[in-house]
């Protein structure tokens, strides 16, 4: 049953360019997939490691900037991807080594500061990043000789990467490492007493999270053909965090739903009103106050409450929300 | 006057402003464990409100005090209505304060548009003051003076009064403070309003130097974060030392390595994190 639903979902997603209608919507769908990959990467830290990060747009942007610089240097697309991801991983290692000096709030503050450093470099170090004007590139890669120039082709390529990401996440969550990571989230001291190296587990999780942020950053560059300091601003980190939180942390589906929600609202809202930031802030406040565990678990709870209200004799649901 | 001296005076001035901003941030963080990401917005909101008040005929100083009070009221409302509902939920507090900062920034953009607004220097403080053979801009000296007086005032409040003793008790051990009869929840509101007041006031008196523009909040917030990480949360002395370190680094960094000014600013923070994660004067790890 679950497999059937999964297969159906993949088919629906793969057919999206045929049913959404119009290149505009295909492009929105591509954006959703790119941000879903980013949100899934952040969810490794926020959901499974219990470490809230507000600096991941920095990693996302480092991948995009590194790729843009290498691409404008005339390198081939394989080199571009390898260099971009290697640079992102190195940056993630530095970020992790510093941010893991603190836990809880300290971790959040350090990631904010690190993200702002990346923003400062992107904005001010003009010889490297071209400052506020950003860096443009031309051309998307041609894997196996297929052109990705059309929106639908790019969507399908992104979908393949997205499915790989989801599969990697599913394997990661179910793996012993994923279980031990959740252990460090819930009971760091006990995990330590049991002989686990809590710091190293968190460090590796940070790298894994950074890697997928880098993949998303690379796709972002291919999609927009442009990257500017806006991509690494605190707002970008906050938006990505909102995707994870609004969908529901620590679930596989949550960040994907959240990414779809935020991208759609952003596109719809910016078509009607200029005040996207106000809407973003208001959504933050409303979700935190009224649906603190996110839309997916929140909706599940709401549904249970509804059905329980309709059938008062039914036994109270005790099944925990999906992990 | 040589370039170095100009830079040093500017650094002291910025350090003074940063102290006003970060002392509140540090107290809120130390006492309530709330990472108040709206603190930069308080700073900007104070400055914008003052421009509106000055246009309505207030003079500079009364505008500074009233704008600070309005920001304090806003802070109190935020604390009572929203943060009060989220005790101990750090993630939720981060998100709510961040969301509020976006909303404040957007409202300010809507009301005061995107053009920078310059607050005029109060007439009595224009020009320069001669100290020995050197001439210093009077207003910058005044800001440094205000910062020193505020530091002394805050120190006296925290160290010499009953309220200060209760706040210190709350920072050290909130549970124990409750047990001995301190109403920690009321302290929370007082400290939050005080922090908001200081930030709003700092925004106003910083106005003649920095002017007010959209994005000022996002520029000041990381500076306050660095100060608190450097100095240690909940420590007044830490805020003071951290503010001046950051003030000097920012000005000298911008003069000497303009492209890397932002990175230079964060380097000492990274060193402190590696060597002493609780901050120079902090007692507990962040």
Strand content of chain A: under 5%
Percent helix of chain B, as a range, is over 70%
Q: Quick one: overall form of chain B?
A: globular
Number of helices of chain A: 15
Largest sheet of chain A: 2 strands, antiparallel
The rounded distance between the terminal residues' Cα atoms of chain A is 18 Å
Brief rundown of the structure:
The complex is a heterodimer of chains A (323) and B (286). Chain A has helices at 2-14, 16-19, 23-49, 56-72, 77-99, 105-124, 126-129, 151-174, 176-186, 188-193, 198-224, 234-247, 253-272, 276-290, 295-310; strands spanning 135-136, 226-227. Chain A is mostly helical and 323 residues long.
Q: Can you walk through the features of this model?
A:
The complex is a heterodimer of chains A (323) and B (286). In chain A, helix 4 (56-72) packs parallel to helix 6 and helix 5 runs antiparallel to helix 11 (198-224). Residues 314-323 of chain A have low confidence and may be disordered. Chain A has a single domain (37-291), classed as ABC transporter involved in vitamin B12 uptake, BtuC, CATH 1.10.3470. By secondary structure, chain A is an all-alpha fold. Helix content of chain A is 75%, strand content 1%. Chain B has a single domain, classed as ABC transporter involved in vitamin B12 uptake, BtuC. Chain B is built from eleven helices and two strands. Chain B has helices at 3-32, 39-55, 60-81, 90-112, 138-160, 162-172, 174-179, 184-210, 216-231, 236-256, 261-275, and strands at 128-131, 134-137. Classes of the chains: A mainly alpha (323), B mainly alpha (286). The interface between A and B is large, with 47 and 46 residues.
């Amino acid at each position: 049953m679950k497999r059937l639903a999964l297969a159906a979902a993949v088919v629906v997603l793969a057919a999206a360019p045929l049913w959404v209608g119009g290149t505009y919507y295909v492009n929105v769908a591509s954006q959703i997939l790119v941000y879903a990959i980013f949100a899934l990467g952040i969810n490794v830290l926020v959901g499974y490691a219990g470490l809230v990060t507000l600096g991941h747009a920095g990693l996302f942007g480092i991948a995009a900037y590194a790729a843009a610089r290498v691409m404008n240097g005339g390198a081939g697309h394989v080199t571009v991807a390898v260099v971009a991801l290697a640079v992102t991983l190195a940056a993630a290692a530095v970020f992790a080594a510093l941010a893991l000096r603190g836990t809880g709030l300290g971790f959040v503050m350090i990631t904010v500061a690190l993200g702002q450093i990346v923003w400062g470099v992107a904005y001010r170090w003009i010889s490297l990043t071209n400052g506020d004007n950003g860096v443009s590139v031309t051309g998307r890669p041609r894997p196996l000789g297929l052109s990705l120039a059309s929106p639908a082709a790019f969507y399908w390529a992104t979908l393949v990467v997205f499915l790989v990401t989801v599969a990697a996440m599913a394997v990661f969550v179910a793996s012993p490492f994923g279980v031990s990571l959740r252990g460090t989230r819930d009971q760091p001291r006990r995990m330590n007493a049991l002989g686990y190296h809590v710091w190293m587990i968190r460090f590796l999780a940070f790298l894994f999270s950074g890697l997928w942020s880098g993949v998303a950053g690379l796709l972002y560059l291919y999609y927009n053909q442009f990257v500017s300091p806006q991509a690494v601003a605190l707002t970008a980190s906050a938006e990505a965090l909102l995707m994870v939180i609004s969908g529901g942390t620590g679930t596989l589906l949550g960040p994907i739903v959240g990414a779809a929600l935020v991208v759609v609202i952003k596109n719809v809202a910016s078509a009607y009103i200029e005040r996207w930031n106000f809407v973003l802030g208001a959504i933050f406040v409303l979700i935190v106050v009224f649906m603190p565990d996110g839309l997916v678990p929140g909706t599940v709870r709401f549904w249970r409450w509804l059905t329980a209200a309709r059938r008062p004799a039914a036994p109270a649901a005790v099944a925990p929300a999906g992990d | 006057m040589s370039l170095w001296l100009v830079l040093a005076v500017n650094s002291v001035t910025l350090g003074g402003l940063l102290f006003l901003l970060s002392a509140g941030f540090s107290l809120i963080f130390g006492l309530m464990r709330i990472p108040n990401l709206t603190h930069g917005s308080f700073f900007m909101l104070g400055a914008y409100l003052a421009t509106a008040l000055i246009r309505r005929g207030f003079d500079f100083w009364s505008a500074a005090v009233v704008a600070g009070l309005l920001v304090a009221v806003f802070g109190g409302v935020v604390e009572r209505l929203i943060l009060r509902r989220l005790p101990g939920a750090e993630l939720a507090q981060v998100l709510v304060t961040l969301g509020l900062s976006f909303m404040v920034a957007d409202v300010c953009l809507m009301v005061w548009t995107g053009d920078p607004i310059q607050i005029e220097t109060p007439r009595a403080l224009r020009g320069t003051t001669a100290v020995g053979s050197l001439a210093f801009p009077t207003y910058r000296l005044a800001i440094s003076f205000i910062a020193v007086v505020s530091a002394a005032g805050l120190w006296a409040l925290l160290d010499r009064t009953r309220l200060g003793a209760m706040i210190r008790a709350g920072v050290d051990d909130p549970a124990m403070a409750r047990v001995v009869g301190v109403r920690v929840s009321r302290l929370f509101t007082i400290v939050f309003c005080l922090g908001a007041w200081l930030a709003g006031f700092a925004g106003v008196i910083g106005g003649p130097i920095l002017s007010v523009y959209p994005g000022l909040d996002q520029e000041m917030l990381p500076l306050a974060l660095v100060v608190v990480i450097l100095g240690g949360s909940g420590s007044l002395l830490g805020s003071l030392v951290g503010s001046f370190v950051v003030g000097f680094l920012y000005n000298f960094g911008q003069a000497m390595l303009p492209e890397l000014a932002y990175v230079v600013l964060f380097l000492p923070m990274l060193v402190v994190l590696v060597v002493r994660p609780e901050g120079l004067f902090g007692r507990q790890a962040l």
